[in-house]
Amino acid sequence: MAPYLGNRAYAVPDTPFTRENTVVTATCELGARWAAVSVRAWDPRTWQQRAERTFGLPSDAAFSNVAGYKAVDSPLVELCGVDAYNPSPYGVATSEYMAPRIRALFDLGFTHLAVVLRDPRDKKASHVGYVGSGADQEQAVRLGGEAGDDEQNAVMSPDGRSVWFTYTAPGGEQRIGSRPADGDHHRRDEGPAAGHGLPLTVTGRPARAVQANAVHLAPNGRRLTATAPKVFGTVFDTWNSSGPLTRTSAHGATRLGGCLGVVGWTGDDRVLCRTSSGAFRTMDARSGRAGGAPVQVVGPEDGTVAEGMLVSADGKSFIVSVQLPNARRNDGDYVYEDPDFRVVTITSAGATTRPVPSSSLDRRTAFLSWS
Predict the structure, then answer these.
(1) How far apart (Å, rounded) are the C-alpha atoms in residues 25 and 103?
(2) Does 326 score more than 70 pLDDT?
(3) What is the per-residue pLDDT across 156-209, written as a single tens digit (0 to 9) for each?
(4) What one-character DSSP code corresponds to residue 226?
(5) Which helix (H) or strand (E) holds 308?
(6) Are 202 and 155 spatial neighbours (Cβ–Cβ below 8 Å)?
(7) What is the rounded distance in angstroms from the CA atom of residue 237 to the CA atom of residue 144?
(8) Beta strand 162-168 pairing with 151-156
(9) Residue 264 near residue 311 (C-beta atoms within 8 A)
């Protein structure tokens, strides 16, 4: 069998969002009668904006879970609808967990955004679709619509040609499915699912889905980081089918000792972690041992935590969000406070830190890619 090479088989169009040394962010914009996701491309040296795309969210899109409506599991709910009073549908909501989940909403070129749509005729039903860049608010493409559908966790395939999701099959079994973005939109069964409570990440050509948290694909496509309940390990071999991360599907497991959250890969065999001490360390993905000195972004007396969001393509820098610990984010206005994002660069002498200056970023901003 040919080795799994991840997403390198795809030809990504040349745009400001895909060019070398570009950071891409997503921010949820909420108005009185409208909602949208703004995706921006940045120069990480000057933090000047290079380009922006807007994805208008239709009125039936599930971007928050509110009383009286079907609760939906979707990374879009995390981007737009999580605050002091509305927890993440996936439980753990640190930046290391949220960033890869939100990244999975988009294709590689950031041209399509996957959405879950509530059915106004049936409060128990939900369908999947997608929004194209620049489309008007009510121009979402609805891929499903059958009575009684229970489709959640919508994410895009790497090439943007299909939306993948979890669904409840006749008889009550929960499965992973996909619908093509063009054509008849017929649902295709892709494999078993572990309910709706774990998100999906779609990679590879042909595409396949991993149902787990904190999924980051190694640069060479042969290993991935992931976490799932009752599964030992942090790094695993990739596999050639779609399904949840389980004790059966987990092969070549390596546990990264003390790793509280994976930020990303710094090479084919190295992973950057936030450790239980609050410092960041590079770890060997084969042995699980730490290498190099720990990088402390905030001090023990600062009253804040630094959560990792993104690693640069060369593995030398990463972006963190400095914020109050989860237990102290109990103020409803906290989400509207100015964010504290910082770029940390690892050097032979230690590490340097500089702020990310931009009035266009807020606490609803997720850092998605650094090419």
Answers:
(1) 9
(2) no
(3) 999 999 999 999 999 999 999 999 999 999 999 999 999 999 999 999 888 999
(4) E
(5) strand 305-311
(6) yes
(7) 33
(8) antiparallel
(9) yes
Cα separation, 82 vs 334, whole angstroms = 11
Query: Taking the model in full, what pTM does it have?
Result: 0.94
Grouping H, G, I as helix, E, B as strand and the rest as coil, residue 326 is: helix
Residue 42 exposure: Cα atoms within 13 Å on the Cβ side: 24
Choose among 132, 130, 170, 127: nearest CA to 152.
Answer: 127
Query: Per residue in 232-243, pLDDT tens?
Result: 999 999 988 999
CA 185-111-203 angle, 5° bins: 70
Residue 71's nearest CA partner among 59, 83, 56, 81 is 81
- Structure-block tokens of residue 311: 């690693």
How far apart are alpha carbons 35 and 43 in whole angstroms? 26
Burial class (CB within 10 angstroms; exposed 0-12, middle 13-18, buried 19+) of 91: exposed
CA distance 110 to 160: 9
Residue with tokens 């299909």: 162
Three-state DSSP class for 80?
A: helix
C-alpha 43/C-alpha 16 separation (Å) is 10
Measure the CA–CA gap between 213 and 36, rounded to whole angstroms: 25
CA atoms within 13 A on the CB side of 203: 26
* pLDDT band of 347, cuts 50, 70, 90: confident
Q: Are 213 and 230 in contact (CB under 8 A)?
A: no
Bridge partners of 155, per DSSP, are: 164
Kind and range of the H or E run holding 322: strand 317-323
Q: 205-221 as b/e, with b when 16 or more CB fall inside 10 Å? A: bebbbbbbbbbbbbbbb
Phi, psi of 98 (to 5 degrees): -75, -40
Q: Beta partners for 216?
A: 225
Amino acid at site 126: S
Token readout for 36 is 């949208």
Q: What is the DSSP letter of 137?
A: T
pLDDT tens sequence across 85-102: 888 999 988 999 999 999
